[in-house]
Structure prediction request, 330 residues.
Amino acid sequence: MRRRSVLLAVPALMLTAAGCGSDDKKSDSASSSSPSASATPSATPKPSIVSGPVPDITAGTKFGEKPTVAKGTVTPSKDLAVKTVIQGDGPVIAAGDYIEVNYLGQIWDTAKVFDTSWGRGPYTNVIGQGKVIPGWDQGLVGQKVKSRVELAIPPSLGYGTSGNAQAGIKGTDTLVFVVDVLNRYNIKSSANGKAVPQTDANLPKVGTNTDGAAPSVTVPKVKAPTKLVSSYVLEGDGAAVKATDTLLLQYKGVLWDGGKEFDSTYKNGQLAAFPLAQLIKGWQEGLAGKKVGSRVMLVTPPDLAYGSQAQGGIPANSTLVFTLDILAIL
Prediction:
């Protein structure tokens, strides 16, 4: 997991699904690196949104460039100010989507930068569900991917009257963010890597569709492997997964014997956000080192899954087959 931002205030979202927790315990919450985790109740009334004022961006004016932002020279609005500096041509962000962004945050009155993702890598979190400060939730929903958005966020939609002492933010400070929206992920998202030939007749075959639908999994009628199998179906070009990462995933799991599906984000209607270290050993060993943007097929023998313990629709001593799309590292 990337280093914690100075603005981490509450645990980040943790979606759970049956069948994929650690064999000794399941986690129902987890902290992730969050630039703007909510310190204000998610029930904050939706404010009026105005177009300004926002300070000028004086350098790094192109999408993807780290910006330099001037100090505010006038009295900021008491409403949320949102300016689309660069209009993107990607899909529209909806509440409940995960967004991948680069951002810079500074204080209106002083131009002091209190946090930025430039230099450490993009940040991903769910939007519109109270997992980030309300100014982000309300100012970024409806924007398009590949847009640059500037926000001037009053205290009531940031860290409230208490501010954030660790970040040097007072309870009276208006916050200025420049946010480049790199991508968005939802239940229709798929891995985007290149197809890798599946030539071993003794291993399952996984579909290579990238339309957001659940890929097919065809299990051969042969004896199951006794050791872990981890192979690319689609090989992405993103960062390699580390054992300490929290992953955003689409996945489906079926039994080797009979091919019956026992769990699926596609059917659950929610992406899965899991700390890899808290998952079954087969996932820990099989996903570490794999690249973001990939679809991975795992064959997990019982000793790396649930062993002699039955788990819901999973009989004891079952070999499990998974198809997993690694969408992002959180």
